[in-house]
Amino acid sequence: MDRRRALKGLTLLAGAPFVLRGRYPLFAWSPETYSARCIELVRRSLVVDLLSQFKLGAFTDVLGGQPVVPWFSKPETFSAADLQRYKDSGINIFHIGWGTPRGDPLEGALRVLEAWERFILFHKKDFQFVLRAGDFVSVKHSGRIGILFGLQGADHFRTVEDVDAFHARGQRISQLTYNDQNRIGAGFMARPDKGLASFGREIIARMNKTGMAVDVSHCGDRTTQEAIDVSAKPVLITHTACRALNPHPRCKTDEQIRQLVAKGGVMGITHVAKFAKRGGGATIEDVLDHIGHVRKLVGVERVAIGSDIDLDGYDELPPALRRRMMSGFKRKEFDKEDIPGLDHPKRMFDLTEGLIRRGYSDEEIGLVLGGNAVRVLSEIWKV
Q1: 29-380 CATH fold
Q2: Could you read off the pLDDT of 168-210 as tens digits, one per residue?
Q3: What whole-number distance in Å separates Cα of residue 165 and Cα of residue 142?
Q4: Domain map of the chain by residue range?
Q5: pLDDT for 267-291, tens place per residue?
Q6: H helix count then E strand count, the chain
């Protein structure tokens, strides 16, 4: 498919380009105003966050700790006001990401999955699991919020049959590794990165067969490249940034991005400060630079949003929880996680205004906000 057909056919926007006419406030708690073009683009697009924590720290009670909110052990505590914040965000689909625990990854994964099942069953008028390509459109038309269940790591796959079992329960994306070494391959912190293990090749083959998306966001360089090469289907990098702009080892090289795209994949750009800019002081302009780099390198049809935060970001979390979530990173790397302008529920509107400033067309913005993610996931899920 050529660039023009992709722009015309894969974004969910419709109609003629908008004309900028006036600015309007969106939120009672903020005096900031947004252009009519920005507001209409977000509202008409199917907006997908390719990695969102939904609510940071919310699962600690499910796993035996003290939660930030008790929503997932007590779904009735999720209020109408809580729901409105998510609806006001403009995000239609959240690919939630939770890391499998080191103690018993299988048991932990099942607990989180069961907690989401209870939550969505209790709030079925407002939420639904996204399980197939048709669910993307149905979520947008119904006004419900779509939850795309994924896990940041595949340690819960003890055998290839576990891939089938979790797919049957609703998992549609899995990272192969988190930060460290596992039976599949190396996370970006593992030294040395020996690449994809034979078990990892078996897991990828089964994920391809069932229609579960392979995510290499946290994989080391060699494991990333070998996983993309081995996969018979497009691979995702749901949340990262470009090493050409920031030499952090969690960022991906131009070679890896080109390899990903050659196999039909898509890369989501994170909103975490340490990946956006080296040395601190990251702004929304740095995130826009990473989006622009992918656009220039491989085309706007291959870049998406994978924020790796919830609606409010990391910096307001209780200090003890924040330290635990950032374990493995150097202290100086997490003194400031959030990026001003992207650390609040209206961040998709701010990001869209930034894309408008950078000269993106309406069609291109629709692709970045969700069209690219929808296209590649629809392809991967075909069996």
Answers
A1: TIM Barrel (3.20.20)
A2: 999 999 999 999 999 999 999 999 999 999 999 999 999 999 9
A3: 29
A4: 29-380
A5: 999 999 999 999 989 999 999 999 9
A6: 15, 12
